[in-house]
Design a protein that fits this description.
homodimer, about 700 residues, alpha/beta, seven-stranded mixed beta sheet, six-stranded antiparallel beta sheet, 29 strands, flat
């Protein structure tokens, strides 16, 4: 990325407002006023051919008339005039445009938006927007927006795809007492998108975390690539994950792959911390902008009240950081700093008598102890102790301990005094919350961030020798046949080209051929109708299993053919698949969707009732390394079944991981053709004994 | 319950403070000061033999010296002096004591506490505490506590088992802007417990909801009985549900029954709404004290911003109230009150242009429409519209519509103006929250409350003809044998006495007897070692299945006996169970624990891997009616398996429900003896074909 253009846009030395207006009811007026009132120290050039002076500034008729260089230009003129402004800006050498104007793609005018972008690209000008509120930065003292004020200062950046939400959150920073360094409205993302901004902000020293309110990415892969590399924490709140109004899917996998699952997988793979709701987005922005990741599970909770201590303990379990008792030597040391009826185990309960000294002593000792990997400090306001004193004890202890790389979060439960103490703690860079579970939720996010980053540092890239050409040939033949799905026989051929172990499946066009192939494969066999017009083979009476001899084979051929014709008289019947009958094994399902945002995406789960009823599946944006595949196998609820339960041998998870990885490679290679696919069931055998894909489905993209 | 005593304690016309002190650092001083400063209008009698005047009040040497009647007395004297004060109070005719003094059961002095209670009972005096902060009521203007101030006024009552938490939440009512009518510290519950207070508050016109912070009940059943009958919503936050520090259990069911599950079941059965955390406790107290239950699933969301609308839609799905599009006729009417680019579907998006009028029009129409069963109104603060105006539009619309029995919750996202508008809305009895998901969570609790109350109104009581005497005889014999568990054969005899269908299981003491019994039962059979010393029969090589003839039966007898002796040379072997081999069916597990708090508690789940790996089980405090049992069957994740999946016939859920209900009756009848039990597996057959208990375990209470 050429940073200089975004530097110009985000940290302009001079800014023009095209559409600056003398009418106080117009956005063109508000923006100029906001820039001035924000305290911007660069040069401001209002542009309006009909005015000469605005709020004490000289107004220029056009960008071309400005005597100096212009880094950034805010555009508020009507949509149809934007393109000529872009032309002017290009000629003038403006680096970036903040196009507030709406009336583009969001209201159906895609073409106009494309023209604007094309024009900007011609001149190498970058565009933020259109259809945005603008951009706000405390570091630059720049409120280049129609949001009423710069936000309360903080260390995080927030990029919002909803302008209305950005404005309301801007105001909310003051009531919530959680500040932001920057608020950026991203609008239609005609040019600059989330990925561009994350990449730029990652190098911007004024912010230490990057929060995103996302309605939908245009290019999910680009975002993932940038987020994976980001050195700063990225926090995402994805809106629109409910099934309300969602459309139906063609494959089993498709029906299981909602936005929540695919975005969730992508965020996890990219090391992005997911916020659960708006309040949590604020809490995590604060926490991840102030505190380091938590590199282990050893959490200590220090409290002055049993009640909040127990609530925090419950929360720790809920948020995946179950508490452990601290080692004996730690307990012994801690007992010196509390009354007899306190508890040194964890939660460390200093009792309601705890004031400055006990908090100071305990915090200083615990944070420095090698066992501790994260610390939550709780205080329940009493009439006898002073919240600010406690807060000071904590900060002095932390300063003196001078330990780095271990996160601390705090909750003070109480009234005005506690609120004030917490505000001061936040100013000392310690995230503080009004309820104990929030402090635990916050530190658990720091733990999750560390866990994800460890995994992200592994590479998902690998080279698997496969026969891509063969796969494409099979697809081409089906396309030539006018179809947009493959038959089971074809799908298995594609799978086989990628080295997936499938049951031998041969196509018999006649009864005699069926017998011949059955003998080749060896009884018992399975016979299935092969017809692009019959997708639900069992329902059509098109499947017979456990056929043990020639007589049954001939009978089955006749019955299946008759059933198929009765089911659909004009069905195009390719013949009957003669299939090796795989021995029983643990059923799993592999599948894929070609997600509109993230492209080829892999699913894995236990098969049969597990997938149908419990929807116990997990997703990864492809490709998927063998290590990632092993993690997929380990993270479903039914994982212990594959690990071996009730005296059963463990299943061949190595081969399963290899197969998932190859499958993922396949859907990447064939992404221009394959829309959805299932390998269901796949039978997995004991360790060292491999697996077999028993049934296969590939749905092609409509062309 | 005799209300007059609690009336005297909670709404005293006169109050004494025994231990009133002239030393401002003593609680005995603070309480008198708090009572005066709270504005209490009754008579105040400080009691202290060493003083004559305190804060302008005449001090009496003892209770006996007070010339008038005394309704309530606060006690702050040291623990060892309390009993003589109780004696005085009894003689004086005091109705209730608020014993703040600590140093009783909570620090091991159980006996002293029992003596105090016994003395109080002698005189019919009720006790709140000991070891409490006191009790606070805005309606009575009575702060009979050492908490610094009466809470911000509200409509709910909060009873807290943690005194420290009560004090901090008292202060937090002002910063959170969520008030309470009463705060009651319940402490050691030596006499008055949660149940007593819920029962009393349910008739107290000054409160409209009852919130509880619970660390643990003494008598769970008593609470459930009272909560079931309560006409006002009861909200519970149960602290201490994590496994941290929990102890191991003897049975399968025991290992699955944590505090979270059993309390959760009890709350559900009693119609108590469970809060997830401290903030949620505040939110739900506010909501349930102000709004009616939601009697159906038709939720409408009205918004001025797509962003908050989408977040609310996601939350609705998360909280079990997935959104539906409103009917066409509603959409058509709504379109008249919004710009063209708005949406009338649901969420109803009025767009950012919406001001007083559109909110007024839409709210008035939607709340009155027959389809609507609940309404969430969202507003995202803009620079163009005024939050207070919007709030007024909403209130006028609701007042004019004058619709009762449909709940409304609100979220305004924004700054100071939005906060003010929301405070005003709360004063108009509309719960309002700073984030859209909180408003949805709140209304979902009103829906859950209505659902639970509908179920609670059914009776769980029934009479099932059973042979309790036979069951007790079998247990008695095992006890006489010096055992605290039954053998499988005995356990099945107990089950059979309660009409549970078990596989025929007969005890063979010799090889010949084994053959004779096998012939009686009919091959194939199962043979299992019967020994109180061998609990894990399979591990000991003590189980042989599918024995088809006499020869195999003789062989199996020898092998099992040899294996058993090898496994444990000195095992007491009763013989070998000869058992009918039940045909395959769907495996389920039934089981029970005798919970320390709630007594006999029933578990149901799918068997095998479902219970072992997925822990897909559900609990009910026994007895369990057949209807409740059907709900248990329907609420596990694997429920569709019993309903019939993949072309399978539905299982015999009627008989299963009947069996669960009988099992529950059994554990109620035998609660003095049975500690834990499992029927695992139980094989359930197709509809009308019943089920069979294949293995049984009963662990007796240690005596």
């Amino acid at each position: 990325m050429d940073r200089s253009k975004l530097d110009g846009l985000m940290r302009p030395k001079s800014i023009a407002i095209v559409g600056a207006s003398t009418d106080p009811t117009k956005i063109g007026y508000t923006v100029v006023k906001n820039i001035i009132e924000g305290g911007y120290e660069g040069k401001i050039y209002p542009i309006n051919p009909k005015a000469t002076e605005l709020l004490g500034l000289k107004v220029y008729p056009t960008l071309m008339d400005v005597p100096d260089d212009i880094d950034a230009a805010v555009i508020t003129v009507p949509a149809k005039l934007v393109i000529s402004v872009v032309e002017d800006a290009g000629k003038k050498g403006v680096k970036g445009l903040i196009i507030i104007t709406s009336g583009f793609a969001e209201s159906g005018n895609r073409k106009l938006e494309q023209e604007v972008v094309a024009k900007a690209q011609e001149y190498g000008v970058r565009i933020l927007g259109p259809n945005i509120v603008g951009t706000l930065s405390n570091a630059e003292k720049l409120n280049a927006s129609f949001a009423p004020t710069l936000p309360l200062p903080g260390k995080g950046a927030l990029i919002s795809q909803s302008g209305a939400l950005l404005i309301s959150l801007d105001m909310a920073t003051f009531t919530r007492k959680v500040g932001f360094e920057k608020l950026i409205s991203i609008g239609n993302m005609s040019d600059i998108d989330f990925a561009d901004l994350v990449e730029w902000l990652d190098e911007d020293e004024s912010v230490s975390s990057i929060s995103l309110y996302i309605e939908g990415f245009k290019d999910g892969r680009k975002f993932m690539d940038v987020a994976k590399k980001a050195k700063k924490p990225v926090i995402a709140l994805k809106a629109g994950v409910s099934a309300h109004g969602a459309v139906a899917a063609a494959s089993h996998t498709g029906s299981l792959a909602g936005a929540a699952k695919v975005y969730g997988a992508a965020f996890q793979q990219a090391g992005v911390v997911q916020a659960t709701d708006l309040n949590n987005l604020f809490d995590l922005s604060l926490t991840l902008s102030l505190q380091p990741p938590m590199y282990g599970d050893n959490l200590v909770i220090i409290t002055n009240g049993g009640g909040v201590g127990v609530l925090a303990t419950d929360a720790a379990e809920r948020f995946g950081l179950p508490l452990k008792f601290v080692p004996k030597d730690v307990q012994e040391e801690l007992k010196k700093h509390m009354p007899e009826f306190g508890s040194a185990k964890n939660p460390v309960d200093l009792t309601g008598m705890a004031g400055y000294d006990w908090y100071y002593d305990t915090v200083k000792f615990v944070i420095a102890h090698a066992w501790t990997e994260g610390l939550v400090i709780l205080y329940c306001e009493t009439a006898m102790t002073d919240p600010m004193e406690i807060a000071k004890g904590i900060i002095v202890a932390l300063d003196e301990a001078n330990v780095h790389g271990k996160p601390v979060t705090i909750s003070f439960v109480g009234g005005e005094k506690s609120e004030k103490a917490m505000q001061w703690l936040v100013e000392q860079n310690i995230p503080s919350f009004s309820a104990p579970d929030l402090a635990v939720h916050a530190i658990s996010a720091l733990r999750e961030y560390a866990r994800m980053k460890e995994i992200v540092s592994e590479s998902d890239h690998q080279t698997i020798p496969v026969d891509k050409e063969q796969a494409l040939r099979i697809i081409k033949l089906a396309r030539e046949d006018g179809r947009d799905s493959l038959t089971e026989v074809e799908a298995k051929q594609v799978f086989a080209a990628y080295g997936l172990p499938t049951t031998t499946t041969l196509l018999a066009k006649s009864e005699d051929e069926a017998v011949k192939l059955a003998k080749e494969i060896g009884f018992p066999i399975v016979m299935k109708i092969v017809s692009p017009d019959i997708l639900h083979k069992s329902d059509a009476g098109g499947v017979k299993v456990n056929i043990k001899d020639v007589t049954s084979c001939r009978e089955a051929f006749k019955t299946i053919m008759a059933n198929a014709k009765e089911y659909k008289a004009d069905a195009n019947i390719h013949g009957i698949a003669i299939q090796e009958m795989a021995p029983w094994g643990t059923e799993v399902i592999l599948g894929s969707v070609n997600d509109a945002t993230f492209g080829p995406t892999m699913m894995f789960g236990l098969g049969g009732i597990f997938v149908e009823i419990l929807k116990d599946v997990t997703f990864r944006v492809a490709p998927v390394s063998k290590n990632s595949a092993l993690r997929m196998i380990g993270e479903i609820r039914g994982a212990p079944i594959l690990a071996g339960v009730r005296g059963e041998e463990p299943r061949d998870r190595e081969m399963l991981a290899e197969t998932i990885s190859r499958y993922a490679q396949m859907i990447v290679d064939l992404q221009d053709d394959v829309s959805e696919s299932d390998a269901n069931p796949v039978l997995v055998y004991a360790e060292g004994k491999g697996l077999k894909v028993v049934d296969a489905r590939i749905i092609l993209k409509k062309k």
